[in-house]
Amino acid sequence: MTRKEFITTSGLFGISLPFQSALKACSKDSDAPNLPGDFTGNVLIIGAGAAGMATAYLLQQLDIEYQILEADSSYGGRFRRTNDFTDFPIPLGAEWLHVSESELPAIVNDSAVQVTTVTQRYATTDTYGFYSNGTLTVEEAGAAINDYIDQKFIGSSWFDFFDEYIVPSIRNKMRFNTHIVSVDYSGDKVIASEANGNQYEADKIVLTVPLKILQLGEIGFSPSLPNNKQRAIANANIWGGIKIFLKFTEKFYPTFLEFDDSETNEGQRTYYDAAYGQNTTDNVLGLFAVGKQAEPYQNLSGDARRDYVLKELDSIFNGKASETFQDILVQNWNEQPFARAAYLADVASSSTSRIMAESVDDKLYFAGDAYTREDDWSAVHNAARSARDAVRELIR
Fold this sequence. Notes:
The chain has helices at 50-61, 103-108, 158-165, 167-170, 211-215, 227-235, 295-298, 302-317, 320-324, 350-357, 380-394; strands spanning 42-46, 65-69, 81-82, 90-91, 96-97, 119-121, 127-132, 135-140, 151-153, 174-175, 180-184, 190-194, 199-202, 204-207, 220-222, 238-239, 241-248, 256-259, 263-264, 267-273, 283-291, 325-332, 343-344, 364-366.
């Protein structure tokens, strides 16, 4: 079984829209752990992305001692954003809420807190373009769009949501520029070490680094991880990824633009209106590409990449891209040193994420978008759910 098998295909063009998954919760209990367990020790959390911060937040609520060790100079992992490109936040990584809005208060896990984050679903009047064999077809989404649950954050992003509701209570427990290269769980305590010899000790550890980091062998384990986990890591099909944003003086493109290769077993790509629903006069077109479809854009840089994208768009929109172009912003996740890729491929087997979610020796736990116990992965809500699962098991 693969994640792709759960993606509902578009009735408009007969292909799947990368961001409009009709996935349901897969029988998940979305309530965060709120019952005390027997555990009274301390915990190390490796990584301050969605899963790491969600884990820390839950441990904070449970009054369990913890510390977050983050290799980068700031938190956010693969859902960073910038406010410098236009007058609304641009998500450099994770951009959509792929499940019900109820997932946001579930992450906050506090009925006394009112979540005011605004999201917006797509409308039946939104336009979908399909470019094939030199011909562009544009149609309205129509009633088919009602089957999709994906939503855009309005005036904010996943990063802003965590920044407002999660980070304030855990910020003083984060240690940045702390690159863990080995984990020793052979003794009574777990010891995480940096390359410079600095060591951090705890009773248990929750590892939330991207799966690609483990596949590249950038963290060593003593003793070695179980054979089934080693095989899952080695054989994992992990897509590289890139996001490109282009600003234009006018909007000449549909809400979504797709191609024959927008959804394949090797990867995905699509252009989309990145300013959709925002309170802005700027026209920003986003490009999302993962897997093989990302490589033509990743293999170029600077002006050459800009010219390649504009030429591609010019061929579709009769030169409008170059005529109205203003600026470009690129996030190549393959070049981010503590990510090195985008995420576990949609066509991967669900056994990969399930094996990765398994704990080891009641000391080593895993949480993250690729470490899930459900037939869905590679999204922020999956990372948050995996954190809930890890904490439930850890506190027993």
